[in-house]
Amino acid sequence: MRVVRNVGTIKTHQRVSRLLLVAGLLCLFGSIVMTLYPQLLIGAYIVLIAGFLSFNAGMQSWAKWNHRPRPDELLDSTLRRLNDRYTLIHYPNISGRFPPEHILVWPGGLLVITTRELAGRIQVNGKRWRRLDNLLLRIFTFGGPPLGNPTVECLGQQEALKSFLEQQDLPGADTIEGLIVFVNDRVELQVIQSELTVVTRKELPDAVRALGNERRLHAKEIEEIVTALSQGEAVEGPIALPTRIAEEKKARTA
Asked: For the whole model, what pTM was predicted?
């Protein structure tokens, strides 16, 4: 499998997470100092709320962008057995409310992969998502990765990708599919009903193979799409990842 990674986007988010954490801490400590002055009491509460929100957002961003392995690295490790007909693109420069973060391009079309890093028990019924963990556990993991609504996000990412392809006059807009994957191995999924495929990381390779082998894009069209999605100042790839089988053979002969 080939991989394209927008390192610039990753570093930007890492810097933002650090700034949010610092700003949050400064606001929290500042609010404590302000409470010493009665005339600043109302302002102290405002600064306290702002600091709490900033610190929480920074913790969530830190968990996603600074914790290793990141979601993109976990996807690489999970799908690396795929051959070079598959190209996995991480964090392409696509604007929109829900910019796609991971796109798999292969002769069968394009797959938008929406990731979540949560552990614990998760339930989906249609477009409704719930965490089934007890309240105490949720409080302790409040600053961790959020659940949000992966279905709405994945559908929005597909629309953003479709608009991008149409604006660039590129093929593949009618081949886009979506998939939601929970990359934390400690997650327990309860899928009652979902219009999108929802899997754990271990189930992801089988879900990709289940997409079928029907050829809807030719090699030239794939390269045009990959090239367009690989634009940016600090983009690495396409880089061919060695499969585990190749690595094992190399290790045995070393």
From this structure: 0.86
